[in-house]
Amino acid sequence: MASASATHHRPVRVCFPAGSNPPLGILSHPSPTLWVIELRNGPDNRLAEQVLLDVIAPALDRIELDWRNTRRKGSDSEEWAPAALILTGDLRQNKFFSNGLLVESIAMRGFFPQIFDPVITRLLTFPIPTIAAINGHAFAGGLVLALACDYRIMTSGRAWCSMNEITFGVSLPPVVSAILQTKLPSPDVLRACALEGKRFTPQEALACEMVDQLAEGGSAGVLHKAIEYAERVENLAAKGVLGTLKKSKYLSVLNILGDDINLPTPHEADTMFRTKL
């Protein structure tokens, strides 16, 4: 795999799962410092177990390996190339970022501890900046997916952000509750979201700091604004410590999972990742 620091960058486009037609997701690497994961699971982009296990998880593996291969040793410290990841819904439409989890997936034994939680917390602590390009409705698990990213750019058009579990009489898993408490800016917003199932318009989501910016122009406009944001924050990856800083920031989420909390140095984090491959 060509590293992001290559002099002559070749754009990459990989379909997931491998050999699927049509794909459930597409990973692209349009510039040396940018990756884009585009989810394409049907018209409303549900987060089925196959999307989590066979699209998002392996895409994150590929991105992280490619970025870690840019490591270079200086006289005093190690450095990595600037990098950023954009996660978005199907760019061929302007209606859904993700409509959440499939009922069948939720009913699976061990779905949350074995499938959903590891993917969400991996994204939450990913070692390069992550931007959710919310190009339509983000409901329930879809909103959690967006909140697990570092930044959120949302369409200014017709779209809602909502945790609508109360509408269906479904409780919130512990990791979801922890992410909401960590990411939502105030008790009033948390109450409206988690207990009342409020549907936040883009303008309301921006006003309460649930999202960082709005973008006009449908999916294309949201992606363009997200790329601008990525260019602004990509240098945060250069020292290799961003993932560890995220772990420190989100200890409450990680503690709920019962993970062995360690705060590795950049070199240790690099070694740990390669050991898991």
Classification by helices and strands: alpha/beta
The CATH fourth-level homologous superfamily: 2-enoyl-CoA Hydratase, Chain A, domain 1
Strand order of the largest sheet: 1-2-3-6-8-10-12
The end-to-end span amounts to: 15 Å
Cα gyration radius (Å)? 18 Å
Which parts are unreliable, with pLDDT below 50 for 5 consecutive residues or more? 1-6
Provide the residue-averaged pLDDT: 92
Number of domains: 1
* Helix content percent band: 40-55%
Strand content: 15-25%
Q: Write down how many β-strands occur, each being a DSSP E stretch of 2 or more residues.
A: 12
The number of helical elements comes to: 12
Outline the biggest β-sheet: 7 strands, mixed
CATH structural class: Alpha Beta
Order of helices and strands: EEEHEEEEHHEEHEEHHHHEHHHH
CATH architecture: Alpha-Beta Complex
Task: Categorize the overall geometry.
Answer: globular
Family: Belongs to the enoyl-CoA hydratase/isomerase family.
Pfam family, one: ECH_1
GO cellular component, one term: peroxisome
GO molecular function: delta(3)-delta(2)-enoyl-CoA isomerase activity
